[in-house]
Amino acid sequence: MKFGKASDLSSIHFELPLDPLANRSRLDRYELGADGERPNIFIGATGWSMKEWVGKWYPDKTKTADYLKHYGEQFNTIELNTTHYRIPDAETIRRWYETVPADFRFCPKVPQSISHRNDFGMNGGELQQFVGSLDGLKEKMGCAFVQLPPYFGADRLRQLETFLDRWPRLLPLAVEVRHESWFADPFATEALMDALASRQIAAVITDVAGRRDVLHNYITAPRTMIRFVGNGLIPTDYSRMEEWADKLKEWNLPETYFFPHQPDNILSPDASAWFSQHLSAMNFATVRGPSEWAGPEQMSLF
Asked: Would you place residue 176 in the very low, low, confident or very high pLDDT band (cuts 50, 70, 90)?
């Protein structure tokens, strides 16, 4: 992910910020009780079509047509960027649904024909078409997310609210804003987060080196979506993920979608595997992550 990329990491402070004051009252409503419920933490990458994973995360000689099948065996969610460029037809949705396991959750990105239009696709029918297409994902629908264009500033909050009011309340949604004005003015930040919280829509949290302002840590829904951008599995990648694990345990939300980005995404499974193993050792959440392909000899023993 190029957004927020920094060429010099030596002066970056990677610690998580303090939680905003508003989180406490919202967490009182959203966090799980003490009756044995465990948070669900879904971990995934940004696509399944990675030939570099064949032989390590996918079996040797995996055909491209089988990438999604093996991806679903390794991960339990995906930041589905392909929907940003086109609305999938019913047959594509059906194939996706049938290819992945029962515990898999799709997180489709809202098409740019909606997110980058002044009317958010409401007048041309794109919004209705996209929402209708997601019905085919059934219980494997996780949380859609809309990535607003970089020029979409805080002065357009009312425009965003109009879109949010048209979004179906029963369909989970997260919103990612990138323009600096949303975070430069605390009143603008609070206005945005209040608008999201009143509709139980999540605020995407992006942990990236070059834009520490978008690491806001606001909780506005019973779920959160975290886009974690690593730097090639250097030591701070691991310490940052360790801090995130502690934070997710503290928040105790019903659902978290955590997407570890790495340069060119080649190392995303490595980061995901480490994070899932770390969470499993903490033993507070339901989590599933990738394991390196054992090879035909080892697999035949089981």
From this structure: very high
The Cα–Cα gap between 144 and 86 comes to: 14
Strands 202-203 and 205-207 come out as unpaired
Total residue count of the chain as it appears in this document: 302
Condensed to tens digits (0 to 9), the pLDDT of residues 253-269 reads: 999 999 999 999 999 99
Cβ neighbour number for residue 291 with a 10 Å cutoff: 13
Burial of 283 (0-12, 13-18, 19+ CB in 10 A): exposed
pLDDT tens per residue, range 213-237: 999 999 999 999 999 999 999 999 9
What gap in Å lies between CA 287 and CA 39, rounded to an integer?
A: 9
Q: Of the candidates 28, 9, 32, which has an alpha carbon nearest to the alpha carbon of residue 19?
A: 28
253 in Cβ contact with 39 (< 8 Å): yes
Map tokens 């419920």 to a residue: 37
CA distance 262 to 271: 8
Element (H, E) at 244: helix 235-251
- pLDDT score recorded for residue 299: 46
Q: Which residues, 6 or more positions from 40, have their beta carbon under 8 angstroms from its beta carbon?
A: 254, 255, 256, 285, 286, 287
* Average pLDDT over every residue of 179-195: 97
Please report, for residues 107, 114, 249, 259, 276, the alpha-carbon distance to residue 44 in angstroms, rounded to integers and kept in the order given.
Answer: 10, 24, 19, 5, 10
Answer yes or no: is pLDDT of 78 > 50: yes
| Greatest distance between any 2 Cα atoms in the chain | 61
Residue 71: per-residue pLDDT: 98
